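Blackboard transcription, Thursday session:
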Amino acid sequence: MFLNSVVLILQEILEAALLISILLVLSRQLQLSARWFATGMILGGIGAFILSVNLATISEWLDYAGQEILIAGIMIAVLGLLTLIGLYSTSALWASRHSLPYLMSICVALALSREGAEIVIYLGGILNHQESVQPTFTGAGIGAGIGLSAGVLLYFGLLSLPARWIFCTCILLLALIGGTMASQATLLLTQVDWITYSPVLWDSSIWLPEDSIPGHLLYALIGYEATPSLFQAIAYGIGFLLVSISATLGYLNHFRSRRKNTGEK
Amino acid sequence: MSRSVGRFVILLAFTLGIGSNTSFADTPIVELRIRNHLFFPDTLEVPAHTKIKLMVINEDPTPEEFESYELNREKVILGHRKTIIFIGPLPPGEYPFFGEFYPKTAQGKIVVTAQQPSE
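(Written on the board underneath:)
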């Protein structure tokens, strides 16, 4: 139970920790107050608890498709938020920058609700097995520790980049997470037959299995799948482009307005 | 950006449209039970190139997560609840699955065979 608990909790924490680190670096670069982070964490905790308590009922909605529809909905909402974050963080308007902390905290809250609910359900179930409680919770603590360390490592890793690269790297990583959200939502909707089957595009499970350590890391960071379907790959591309194009549009807008301002003077 | 949003919505609507057109009636249902953190049966034989409706019934009081890297499936099933997971159509082969919460005992596989199983 110990090792399984380490891996399971690590997997859940890692995804959220990486997203939070990137948003924290972005927020620091834009000189925003990091108060959104605390709000997001608290809301995420509450969300995870509510979701875990109600998941049994939600799962039975829509002919047992409720769980997937809700989680896919959360993922698409996160993609939407990342798109807006991309647009607003590059744009020059003070008003759009002002809304960034709200967008970031909702984004973190949604991501944490989804990942946290599974942890709560897993650990809650273990409480029925007295003999497994101690090793499982110890493992969970270690898993969470490794996941958070990876987040801290990414945070300082990003900040140690040459200053002009930090911002672009953050946007690129957010676009990759956006792609992952779209791809995973597609997978969930396929699982309940709301999206039709599409052929598997490639199989890299021999070279890089999903259940290996690099596989888990790449899954958390760029949404790596050993056997993605065609629709998943298309969705990934769309998610990636949504975030990266919106950030580029924001930048172009910024550039244009700055040129106009200097021209008027 | 509005154009790419539009495209995404159209694609989503299009794919959802196809999804809802597929009839549920002719999808074979296969039953899988979870008892004492074990799968019953632990080997399921299904025909190749056929979409299958997998009905997973959790008889344990504890939650379990059906997971398979080979099938690209992952779903939490709470204690004393059941759920449906669609799989396939798949080419012939073996597709292992496991219970992510109790992976030491909860192990099983889906064997996809080229010919229709005799019934």
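Lecturer's comment: The longest helix of chain A spans residues 230-264.
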